[in-house]
Amino acid sequence: MLRSLVFALAATVATTVSAYAEPVRFAVTDIEGLEALQQEFGGFQEALEAETGLDIELIAVSSRTAAVEALNAGQVELVLTGPAEYVVMKELSDPRIVVAWQRPDYFAQIAVLADGPIRTIEDLNGKKIAFGSVGSTSQHLGPAQALADQGIVYGEDYEAVIISRNVAAEALIRGDIAAMGLNFGHLNSIREAFPDQAFAVVARGRDLPNDILVARKDIPEETFETIRDAFLEKGNELMGAVLQGEDNQKFKGGTFLTDIDDSEYDYVRSMYRTIGVDTFTAFVE
């Protein structure tokens, strides 16, 4: 009996050790290339290792589709992604939510020229509106939803065109388009890039759901809990490390939220439906 208990205890210890023995691989969907990933998240990698005792390895993925494939193939354990990407990942990989990464002032807007002919949202009827990257939460889906929330129907009440942000700003200034959809931070960048032009906002959406860190569905439970608890207990330290990255300044002033449910991303699902996408089994291209 004693011998059986000893073997059982040894097996338990071995299982626990093996769960921590392999590197926990971390990917980010909107950063291409390992060098860029290391520049943005090298400090966070070190901080997460220090707070968890785990070996954290940065893994570069070429696209959001590649991130899903890596999850399903067991090639990564953690993926940081945006809200629009998350709802598709949920369908394709059924990952577990670890923690949300809050982005202050993360909302979509419809911008026009301050001295232009568009003064109200009704003035956009029959006009041409530019959006950013297809499927982007804050440059495409969010602005379209901000209009839909006020009764302006995507693809019916106006013509939607996909144009990169700076090109769209130039088109707006020339009068080729009536308005452009973008987020708060992007509008500030446009104002800096075109200081001689004044812009106004005719529609603003609600704050968008947060970026989210997900874990592969079969990650060992103790590993999952160790990582989640680090964000819960050492959030300030981890956020400080995140903010070492230049692009990560979008998280400045934000926090980590561990009490997050999948239903909080139903607003994103409604955005997809607004642009005519009723299933979430593929990324919008």
Summarize it.
The protein is 42% helix and 19% strand. It is α/β, with parallel strands linked by helices and 285 residues long.
3D architecture notes:
This protein has 285 residues and is an alpha/beta fold. The protein has 2 domains: 2-104 and 209-274, D-Maltodextrin-Binding Protein, domain 2 (3-Layer(aba) Sandwich), CATH 3.40.190.10; 107-207, Periplasmic binding protein-like II (D-Maltodextrin-Binding Protein, domain 2), CATH 3.40.190.10. Helices cover 42% and strands 19% of the residues. The strands form 2 sheets. It has a 6-stranded mixed β-sheet with strand order 2-1-3-10-4-11, sandwiched between helices. A 5-stranded mixed β-sheet has the order 7-6-8-5-9. The longest helix has 20 residues, at 2-21.
SSE layout and pairings?
Blueprint: H1 2-21, E1 24-28, H2 34-52, E2 56-58, H3 64-72, E3 78-81, H4 83-93, E4 96-101, E5 107-113, E6 128-131, H5 137-148, E7 159-162, H6 165-174, E8 179-183, H7 184-193, E9 199-207, E10 211-215, H8 221-233, H9 235-242, E11 256-257, H10 266-274
